[in-house]
């Protein structure tokens, strides 16, 4: 309200304008919090339930030889373009702020993210930042201590835990709420989805394969459902089965299979230990198409300021919290080789890293990262340096 209740006097123009903008931002985002006026989990039953029915129908047609098997090639291609929109755009760029991107790359990533149709960037990032801050507690949207199926997909079909509801209301993301591309996508999400997620692929199935409309829709849903399960496996499989070389005290694990299907997102023990690393893994291109994508655009000059963990920081952390399954020799603190330090670092990074363990961080712009720790993080391809 721009008029005070008591006096009915106008408040000053600046405050009024601010309020109008705030309300508009809220409207842009709230249309996603209750899609078509339905509670999120109720909407998911209808939305994702329908998607699964069509996906299994097309799988059945395919198995029984009544579908065009070669559509799988386009399904994989379009599915993985959307997948990279999630892993590179939504995850490593918007959620974790692990690198910077110019406007054309931001727009490209937003379009790719819309192909995947996993809700708008802002909502996806909010859930994911909360996941990193409160991993495997009741405030974690896909708390894996509630079992495989809950963390895989059950969390989307059940009412939210009260602890999570509280966090969703209070968790601040001013960076994304003021990002014009994020706001544009949230405002026009269902229109963009209709065109990019449905109409374009359906047209391609029809034009190139001559499928009936029903089969076009079913093939598109199969592509969608497969990509959903791949994403969901990061929250389920990569929190259960695998090694913990970097931090044995946390639930996320290293799972090469998840990395294979989820283009590099299965190196999850590393990722939760160092969520600001643009590789989301220690080794850059090892089963990590998403890192290749970022490196390619960094080479073009579209991506820059890539954050990564220095060898010193890595070794100190391995020494302190690793489970000794890592094949790098851990640092010998007594005979620490000073040459190993890439540049001036505080004597004891270990002390700094302790803060991060007690207070997990969501990414590079999280205020809880100690300033000293920022100073020992490497930044690759800073703007102007190729
Ligand atoms: Zn993450
Ligand atoms: Zn996780």
UniProtKB/TrEMBL annotation:
Matching InterPro entries = Acyl-CoA_DS, FA_desaturase_dom
Present the record's domain note: The histidine box domains are involved in binding the catalytic metal ions.
Respond yes or no to whether keyword Repressor is given for this record.
Answer: no
Q: Where is the Fatty acid desaturase domain?
A: 73-275
Native species: Orchesella dallaii
State the family it belongs to: Belongs to the fatty acid desaturase type 1 family.
Q: Where in the cell is it found?
A: Membrane
What is the name of this protein?
A: Fatty acid desaturase domain-containing protein
How is this protein positioned relative to the membrane? Answer: Multi-pass membrane protein
